[in-house]
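Worked example 2:
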Amino acid sequence: MNTQPPPGYVIYNGPSRIDGQQIVAILTGLRKSKNRKTGNVLQVYILRADTRPSQARKENKDVSICGDCPHRINKSCYVNLAKAPRAVHAAWLRGVYPDDLQAAAQAATDRHVRLGAYGDPYAVPVWVWRELLHLAAGWLGYTHQWRQPDAGPYMQWCMASADSCTDRVDALDMGYRTFRVRRADEALMPGEFVCPASDEGGKRVQCDTCKACDGTGRRGAAQGSPVIIVHGAMKKYF
């Protein structure tokens, strides 16, 4: 009898908080994450339930999981939908991932969790993240929905994704820490540091070692805010 644990769990299957369309959030990486940037961190993929990720992007249905993210609108998103998002969605359709938030929370015990390997954590209800993360060693998360009036609870887990200096100032005023994407010719702002996991960071410290992108819930604003040069195959659209 096969007693090997599943490769992941469905932690949410329900309406998006962004537009009410059906989405699914899946915790993966239980056996071991091979992500070069993040290290051995559990990964949550937030996907449209009814449409393949590439098709959702083509038909503008990815608004359900990405909201008003400018990288979705400008086609500058760094996520390659033909790789992990496609594979995770296909595996979910085959029934590979059990629907079990409590088991997922147990699997996350003493592990670090990336709230949105693809998709915005804001699309998933707050109670899901509370249940998933209450035994976790830590997390990293980012949201472009930080301007939404009901997004405040997410700042404990998520950095405000900032795409300009104005974004950063506004997010700081609202109590967030930020993760800013910049052009190569833009200088750092006060309180920012280069993401150690980026090529610019030099030493390529992985996220499970750095642990800086954990919102305000653990270490607060004194931790500073990372910044990264725009990257990915679609960066020309930034």
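The chain has a mean pLDDT of 89. The helical segments are 53-58, 63-66, 70-73, 84-93, 101-107, 126-133, 165-173, 207-210.
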